[in-house]
Input
Amino acid sequence: MRSSDGVDLAVTGFGGAGRPIVALHGLMSCAASWEPRAAALTPHGRVLAPDARGHGRSGRPAGTDAAAWSPDRLARDVVELLERTGPAALVGHSMGGLSALLAALRRPDLVTAVVAEDPPPDLTGSPPGLLDEMRAWFTAVAGPYPSRAALEAVLGRPRPEVGSHMGRCAVRRPDGWWLACDVADACAVAAHWVRRSLLDELSAVRVPLLVIEAGESVAPPGQLALLASRVPGARHRRLPGTGHLVHDADPAGWAAAVTELLTGTAPG
Output
């Protein structure tokens, strides 16, 4: 599909039938990273996963306008997909969680439910050098690597699930294997997070909501529980022992929590 500002966005289908479930990946990841979790979602609907702008097989905006990488623009891409598919449940990780929440806020008529997995609603209180640290880390891990296996080995320390997850988002170029997102583009997205709090805005979401928090979350302590407490009927699940990629670190716990929301059930 092509976004309203002219960016070509790739969308992957993972099967299933019925009302769509749209899976939204995190920063520097891609749609293909959802493949191992698709089987947990397909019993509940038709699973689609877009590559966010600048990621995976999607294009990137021309020019240097910072607004083209804002949370609002990323959410607009999701809304424009839903305008084609019809109402859908949104399952978003990190950056994708922010996009899901903002899409639900902007167009609640198109969003039946939201799973927001370890999103960063407010990083404005972070140390001043956080963005520089992120840029340095992204640059160090982006590539090149002599093989996909080498990329997975490096990124899999100390958490193996990170290596296998990011390996699905690797692309081969003439000089080796790289993550399919340019560092400058990733930093353009992250720059908005450290300068603008979304916590109060996202607290106005009024669709069924599940907030999943990692044991080692990227969000400041208490922030995700606070978000859930502000949304009537929302559920908050913290899965101990997990890193930021909760759905890969504890797939069974993640699937159980997501199924509760998608089926409208709760633990007895």
Notes: The chain has eleven helices and nine strands. The first strand starts at residue 11 and ends at 13.
